[in-house]
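[#protein-structures] MJ: dropping YdgA family protein here for a structure pass
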Amino acid sequence: MKKLGIGIAAAVAVLAAGGATTGYLVGNNIEQGFATAAKEWSKPPLLVQVQDYQKGIFSSTAQTLWTVDTGEEKLQFTAQHAISHGPLPIAHLAEIVSTFAINPDAPPEWVVAFKDKAPLVWKSKVGWSKNTQNEVTSPAFNGEFGADKLAFGGFKSDFEMSSDFSRIKGDASMPSLLVQSKPGEEDDGQASEMLMSGNTMRFDMHQPTGQEFMVGSLQWDLASLKVTPKNGDAPAELAGLKMVADTQLAAEVVNTTINTSVKSFVQKDHKIDDIAVDLGLHNLDAGWLNQFTKESQKIQGDPQAMQMLLMQGMQQLLARKPELEVKRISWRTAEGTAEVAASLAYQGDSSKPLNPMMDFKAMLRLDMPKPVLQSLYAGKVRETYLLENEDAELDEKQLASVVQEDVNARLSGLVQAGLLVENSDRMTSQLQWADGKLQANGKPLDQNGMMGLLSAMP
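AK: finished. structure tokens for YdgA family protein:
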């Protein structure tokens, strides 16, 4: 029995020592991971710095400083990290709980808003594959920030991230956000308000090998959004928004599709249902996008530098024959369903100087009830008329009559020129530009047609 007891004690001692050694090695790896993560996350406007790391046998602690500097505002958070990494974890290598706090020298309104709560808590479990399972939460709070009042309903995100930060998959939700702005002297006592509710997101993104950009899918759902302007305009309310974006790398080009739908939009007496917007960006050169993504991180906030960067490598970009396609913009009103589609594609020789008249192919197609087209035209005609006749004294009824007459004349001119086809109560058109020539509804547009088009523009 004595020898057995000694043997058991020796075995326990060996296991304990092994567990302690494993935990300490994991702790060392996590310390290296902290430094790597800080470098990876530090991209403008965010800077992450490791200020302290204390290694233990089974647990460690760390402190990092997170600085968000937009150029207009600078905000700093200090994060305390509690790290458990032994002995002999079974389900995962380690667990990290990071608690963020607003620094005391932050703007007073931020300090007050988070006086008794952490603005962010981040829990991570490091798996044996070094991937992490993450839960990020932010509490609900109310606060005043200058002339604005903010009521935040909280935030939660659960996601998985690869050890090299090249893949992220998960979801996020924000139940509600209310922003109220105090009225100024010119606002006639009318405060503005924005209320957003039911905000959720699902994502599955990854960074292809050797590339700086991300590809994959993203879905955003918003239950409702209500906006009340300061200037006394009628409130606007949107319900049932859904956006699905998908970006894929195929050989040496990147293709993106974005499909958006809105159940309803209401403003005053106007209601639009079943809004759909489907977009596509095709044949974007991966090398050009990679370089643009890499360099743009260094010049954020500099519009001129960004414009120069866009122009660099233009020959490489055009060589892939990129195309922007508006597959569909459609909506439904009391008058019926309206639909518009358009596309713009480069068809030229990228090795030669750019000739916009010959190198691009474009298409525009519309099909909608006549009252809808009249309404779209009327808004632009009204705006133009008011700018050109600032000193004219017309009441609202006279102005509406003038605008209506102008719109009718312009649409009649387009029909006579062959640009629009009127069929009962609907208006249709298909315009195509190719090889420097314009066709309207399958027929070449002559000089009279071009004059009609120009004269019909507001």
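MJ: nice. Residues 1-6 have pLDDT under 50 and may be disordered.
AK: one more thing. The CA atoms of residues 275 and 331 lie 4 Å apart.
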